[in-house]
Amino acid sequence: MLRDITIGQYFPGNSLIHRLDPRFKIVITFIYIMMLFTGDHIVCLSVGAVFTAAAIILSQIPFKMFVKSVKPLMPFLILTAALNLLFISSGDVYFHWKFIKITSEGINVSVFMLIRITLLIMGSSLLTYTTSPITLTDAIERLLSPLKKLKVPVHELAMMMSIALRFIPTLIEETEKIMAAQKARGAEIDSGSFMTRAKNMVAILVPLFISAFRRADELATAMECRCYRGGEGRTRLRQLCSAPRDYAALAVTILFYGGAAALGIVLK
Amino acid sequence: MSNIIEIKNLHFSYPAEEGSEPAEVLKGIDLTVKEGEFMAILGHNGSGKSTLAKHINGILVPTSGTVTVDGINTADEDKIFDLRRRAGMVFQNPDNQIVSSIVEEDVAFALENLGVPYEEMRRRVDEALKDVNMYDYRLHSPSQLSGGQKQRVAIAGIIAMKPKCIILDEPTAMLDPQGRREVMSVIKRMNREYGITIVLITHYMDEAAQCGRVVVMDKGRVILDDTPRAVFSQVEQVKKIGLDVPQVTELAYELKKAGYDISDDIITEEECINAIKKLFS
Amino acid sequence: MAILETQGLTYVYSEGSPFQKTAVDHVDLKIDEGEMVGVMGHTGSGKSTLIQHFNGLLKPTLGKVLLDGEDIWADKKNIRDVRFKVGLVFQYPEYQIFEETVFKDIAFGPKNMGLDEAEIRKRVLETAHDIGLGEELLERSPFELSGGQKRRVAIAGVMAMNPKVLILDEPTAGLDPAGRDKILGHIKAYHKRRKNTILIVSHSMEDIAGFADKILVMNKAKLFCYDDTEKVFARAEEIADIGLDVPQITKVFIGLKKQGLDFGKDVYTMEYAKKLLLKKLAEKGGTKNC
Asked: What does pLDDT average to over chain C?
């Protein structure tokens, strides 16, 4: 049940997209998001869709994984689209009943919204699917490293992030174990009234917190024993080096963005 | 050979909680360990063996007395990282000492902290992984590994620092028999091939029997300090403090007690088989 | 009569995905009431998956689990009752403790059963006594206790449900020899008084040799054997072949047999080995040195 969570899931591989420098991938993703949200002509979105489709094909990750990434957010998306559809009242009116009006503008906005968000989720899923969380953290740390001068604890934040990532599977497994143990003592977790279930959550959360603190304590000692003393003077095993392909990918993205923007202006 | 660890009249108490006397955990320990030795510290829970281990790399410092490791006084805060690089520590719970979600990066963690340059780090990480037979798993996530494998990764993370001494605090307590065998064989090889001094804290007598020297602790004191053979032949005394002796040692001891001519310092199955055969010949 | 029975029990993890794995493969088993069973098998042999079927935490992919002759999954609504009848203590159970006092933590199971205050109190006191926890500990916080004591609190929490079958998954893992002997001693005494069925999973055949009437061995998702202790130990060589640890004493007698001294195959406890050798030596007569 808990294992179905796909956030931050990573599919190891060796495609072009996998091999791109994660720093570039993050920057590219940002440009991509800008592309989706600045163009307001259907052509701009089409360009975005083509770009997404190309990247997905290059990543060699099955398309159904991207469908899966959008699925959990579908109810939310449909609700937003429906609200836009029903309550935007400008444009030609196609249908009118009491206070509900369906207008050309409403259809436009909701369809745009739907496509944009879907593309956004697919694009950012592509980033996490092809980049291991730890590499991603690392890249963020390096992209943000100029902020160190402003006394932002970039290294510490990144270290916390990566430790959290390291312990997610451990804590999921632990939660499952504790749940099974309390179920064996007759605790009702997936059945029973809301109140009993809420009460029984305590029986899971208390041991889980105690264990997390114990782990944190032991891990801190183990880190000290391995000479951890903050980010100062650290070297790294993982070297991030950019290759011509990274610049090429960036250039292609910018071209797409430029093209979409230009088309948007011309066709207006 | 020179002494790598020198412990002199070590006393240690945890700070007293309100309204109670400070409980003295270590009550005057004198112990020296020679370079390249393979030593086990045996004792039941609460005997002070883990507390003693934590003194060797400066996680704890003595209330009185001194601990010196490779010439460094563990109470000297300026040299703490020097000390920890030379005396690495492996803990009981394999999950709680692995920092990174990729095996090879975890092995590199100490080297990153020490600022080792990339080329050398790469080489040392690969060597350490090969030493513990985990090279093929270098890109795996620790959550995909068995307990024994995780513990070997933790050992690799220490070996990569090129320490002179490794202290292992009950490294096999949470492992299954297979994992225990893997870990023991790695530890033994590190001692044999690189001459790394090993201090193995354990309550498994079969592991202690594989060491060169066994120190038995009880109530914060060292009560026996000898070869495994000599220690286990003290069947009564070892059992009295709640520890086991190997079954073969106990059997020989019982036969001798019944008046048969059998040596009382048997610790392997082979010795036992031969001794019994002799009785029947 | 069999209290627990499995018929063609099969369990497949992640069915239909590329990670599909058969953890338990067509296991047929009958465990009689009142027996003390040792369960062995190495990590991944399917033993943990098997025992989680006995109290309905897992539902068989194929086959049936019968408790007292009735299919536990016949009516899904009764599965909670099955969990009260078959108590399961997981590995490192002290990590499931959550209440503020030892008393409350032991009472959690009985309370979930819907018992009245007086009955709960009676059960908690009884089991605390059974597992060797003094009454003075009951109002203390379980988190202040020693590791061994915490483990006993957690075990008591399951025992207090008065299960007909009690299953313990490696109850002595990580304990020192004294702690191990204490817990096994209390479980044995509890078994003697209550005469209920107990299954103990253990990696240590030396421990199992000390308490079990019967031994169940799992290997590669299949039932390797389920038989009387001495009969299983008579197959010690096969058991060593599948990678399990055989007691040192048994290995010695296997070695002796190979060298022509055959004292029978069923030597697995210290006590018996000693008696046997002394008897044989007396029969032989001769070199006593005093």
From this structure: 91
Give the residue on B whose Cα is nearest the Cα of A232: B113
Whether the Cβ atoms of residue A173 and residue C91 lie closer than 8 Å to each other: no
- B161: closest chain A residue by CA: A226
Residue A221: its chain B contacts at CB < 8 A? 59, 91
Would you state the structure tokens that stand for residue A54, as one six-digit string?
Answer: 């190309």
Cα C79 from chain centroid (whole Å): 22
**Do C143 and A210 count as a contact with CB atoms less than 8 A apart?**
yes
* Structural contact between residues A36 and A120, judged by C-beta atoms closer than 8 angstroms: yes
Q: β-strand B38-42 against C222-228: which pairing, if any? A: unpaired
Instruction: Quote the pLDDT of residue A260.
Output: 85
CB of B160 within 8 Å of any CB in chain A? no
**Strand boundaries in C60-189, DSSP class E:** 62-67, 70-71, 86-89, 165-169
Structure tokens at B81: 């990282």
Rounded to whole angstroms, the Cα distance separating B111 from B129 reads 14
Give the chain A residue nearest C80 (alpha carbons): A186
Answer for the pair C197, C33: CB distance below 8 angstroms, yes or no: yes
CB C142 within 8 A of CB C101: yes
Contact (CB, 8 A) for B143 and A170: yes
Using DSSP's 3-state secondary structure scheme, residue A148 falls into helix
CA atoms within 13 A on the CB side of C210: 15
CA distance C244 to chain A (A): 25
Q: Does B113 touch chain A (CB under 8 A)?
A: yes
The whole-angstrom distance between C212's CA and the closest CA on chain A is 24
Q: Give the pLDDT confidence of A155-189 residue by residue, as tens digits.
A: 999 999 889 888 988 999 999 999 999 999 988 87
Q: What is the DSSP letter of C86?
A: E
**A7-18 pLDDT per residue, tens:** 557 788 889 999
Q: How confident is the model at residue C84 (pLDDT cuts 50, 70, 90)?
A: very high
Q: Determine the pLDDT at residue C288.
A: 53
Q: Rounded CA gap, B257 and B251, in Å?
A: 10
Rounded to whole angstroms, what are the CA distances from C283 to B259, C145, C280?
A: 15, 52, 5
Handedness of CA C234, C239, C240, C246 (dihedral sign): negative
Residue of A nearest to C106 (CA): A185
For residue A151, what pLDDT band results from cuts at 50, 70 and 90?
Answer: confident
What are phi and psi for residue C36, nearest 5 degrees?
Answer: -110, 110
Measured between beta carbons, which residues in chain B are less than 8 angstroms from residue C290? Answer: 259
Please name the residue that has the structure tokens 């204490």: C182
- Cα–Cα distance for residue pair C290/C288, rounded to 1 Å: 6
Q: Comparing B9-18, B28-37, B205-214, which segment has the lowest mean pLDDT?
A: B9-18
Q: Which of C42, C175, C288 sits opposite B176 (nearest CB)?
A: C42
Closest CA to C142 of C108, C177, C192: C108
Question: What one-letter code names the amino acid at B229?
Answer: R
C163 DSSP 8-state letter: -
Pick the closest to residue C196 from C163, C169, C168 (CA basis). C163
Residue C43 CA: distances (Å) to CA of A115, C202, C221: 49, 11, 11
End-to-end CA distance of chain C: 53
Q: Under CATH, to which class is B3-245 assigned?
A: alpha beta
The owner of tokens 């070695």 is: C255
Q: What is the pTM of this model?
A: 0.87
A224–chain B nearest CA distance, Å: 8
Query: Which domains are seen in chain C, by residue range?
Result: 2-227 (3.40.50.300)
| Cβ B113 vs Cβ B100: under 8 Å | no
**Alpha carbon distance A84, A108 (integer Å):** 9
Contact predicate B183/B175, CB 8 Å:
yes
